[in-house]
Structure formats: structure tokens, C-alpha cells
Amino acid sequence: MNAERRNLLVEYTPLPDDLDERLRAQLTFLIEVDRLKTVLRQSPLAAADRRENDAEHSWHLAMMVTVLAEHADEPIDLGRTIELVLLHDLVEIYAGDTPLYDSAAGVDQQDRECAAADAIFGLLPVDQARHMRSLWDEFEERRTPEARFAKAMDRLQPLLLNWMARGGTWRTPGVLADDVRARKAVIGEASSSLWAAGRRLIDEGERRGWARSAAPEA
Amino acid sequence: MNAERRNLLVEYTPLPDDLDERLRAQLTFLIEVDRLKTVLRQSPLAAADRRENDAEHSWHLAMMVTVLAEHADEPIDLGRTIELVLLHDLVEIYAGDTPLYDSAAGVDQQDRECAAADAIFGLLPVDQARHMRSLWDEFEERRTPEARFAKAMDRLQPLLLNWMARGGTWRTPGVLADDVRARKAVIGEASSSLWAAGRRLIDEGERRGWARSAAPEA
User: Which residue on chain A is closest to B37 by alpha carbon?
Assistant: First the structure.
């Protein structure tokens, strides 16, 4: 997780020496985050036969915030909520994606992601690094209505993709419909109506055999 | 461009009948826009050996707005500028990407994209369809500081990717460094400092032979 020992993308084609130092730091960060497009998630796309990457996922969450904000149980600042979802996965550029149903990978997830946050946000000018880090902390801590809604979108979006895929990661070995409900319940902390809809999709998925019930099948 | 004759993604796995009608329209739209992840652009990624898609591009623009907003020559509303870049390419789901240096494809671009806007935004509840359409019109017309800055990001981002690729689409047959400068000059309508940096990259690219000069080479 040491930024000094990591090759930055910009080093492959260094920027001209005479660029302003602050702008150079900003462009270095903006080039480095191109890597988010290469971090693969578990979710299958609805529109193509491949897995989704983090940049596509983050864009999709932002669209969901703009369209679904009215379902928030508490008033939310739209712009800040969008900023939260846009940057919430940047740490995965260095820490990788941690699948929702992989308990082992979740053990040191926080340590890995904190180190990654220092490395990626640290490319920015200090004031902007602090600002982005505080937004990422806000997302992770879920103490504001904006962070709770952002997290709800982060859980609802793959649920929609799994529905479209008629199972998707719900079919992960060892995962039951009750596990899905437990991991997705956080949607209800931000929106009772969206959680009702999400639960409806999981229940219907279980009924159709796209997610396994606890009881052994007859 | 007739929405009635087009198969929507959601039709492959219809949503349960008993969802609220407004939420059903919103989810139908949010599932359909998954297609943006399959619209390929000309730009090569910096982080991988493949072309970029529109969803990745839109996410990248939003990150650029948050980091580079301070370079705007006029004050801009950050949240609205981000909304503009998030949705500016949605019409390409049905109209396709029109390469910047393809004059022939540009001829009927506006007609194709207006019809596509009717189709894609028309999936939303009427009030939200109107709102998104007005944001897309704002982006296209470039009459507000926010729209000019959003357009500047739309031109600066592939410029950065072409720099990283040591040419990229600058190497398109028939394209000269002067053509690149002409297409990118719109950056200067939003930010003199970013346009100075962009021009610096194009000039240096021309000097290194990554973009062709007008004069025949000796």
C-alpha cells in the first residue's frame, strides 16, 4: 500500500515539466483513477454478457441517486450524495473489490481500504485530498442521510442486476435467500419504499429458485 | 428511434406486477441505461488495452468536475455540472457514439440524438423525463457556465487519454494537430487555464510526432 513503491499510470507518459504544480497533481490523480475501469465486480451486466467494473458501477449509482432521491426517508443533499457514490469505490483501485458474500476477504478489508485511501487521495493537493477522504469516511460511517442513501444505492444496484440475470451472485455456493436479505437490509436504513421493492425482488427470486431457500429442496 | 418498437432490457426479466407504477418506470429506465456500458468510444483507456465505453467516460468526467471545478473562469454549481456530465451521453444508447473526427457521421447527429432523447428519457415519469431532457438540452446548447464546463471536461478527458496513449485518436487518418486544436478549443470557453494546459499537451504531442503537422515532413 506504499504509494512511493507503486508505479503511477502517469509515469508511462509523464506530463510536460512546465505544468503548474497544483494542476499537475490533479491531472496525475485523474489519470490514475482510470484504473477504476479495470476493477471487476461480481455483478453481471444486464446489457452484455460480462461482469461489471467499478467505474460503470459508480456511474450507475449516480444515475440511481438522481432518479430515486425522492424515495429517501430523510431529506438528502443531491449533489453530495452523488459525490459520495462517485468516489466510494476509488480505494478498490489499490485494495481490489471485496465480494459481498466473501466473509474471509472481509476480515482485513477495512485496513486494506484505509491504506488504499491514503495512497489514492494522497495524489491530490492536500486540501482536496482531505476533502475526498472526509467524503469517503462519511460514506463508510453511514452517519448522515446522504451516506445512508448512497450505501442503499450500492446495495440496490447489484440487486437489480441479479434480478435481470435471474440469480447472478445470489447463486454463489453457500449463499441463501436469507443471507441476501440480511446483506441488503441496509437499504431500509435510507428508504422504506425502496427496501420494500428490493425485498419483493428477493422474495420473488427465492420463489422462482434464483436464490436458495434454507430448507433442503424436496 | 420509436420506443414502442424497441425491446427494453427489462422485458427479458419483467419486474413483478405489483410494484408501484412510478417506481416501476424509474427502475425500467435505470435498467435500460445499463446499455451505456456497451457503447464503445474511440478513446483508448490509460489503464488497459481496450477502448473506453460511455459509462466509464461519464464517470470519469464527473470525477474531473469535482477535482477541476476551481479552474472554471465563471462560478459553477458543482452538483448540476456533475448531473450534466452523468447524463450527457445517454442518447448514445440509441443513437450510438459519433466520433469527434468523423464529419460524415456528424451530419445527422442532432436529429438522431433528439429522437434518442425522446426515447430514453421518455421511460421516466413525465416530470423526471422533462427535467432530464432540460439538462441534456442545457448541455448541448452550452449557454450556461455549467454546460460550458461540462463540455470542456468532455473534450479534455479524451485529450488526457490520447496523451497517455501517445497519440490515440490523434492518429486518425486525415487528422492534423490543427484539427485537434480546433475541436478542443471549446475548452477555452470554460477555463483559460485548462485550455492552456490542453494546448500544451497537443503542441508537445505534435512536436513528438503523435499528431501530424500540416506541412509535409522533411
Answer: A56
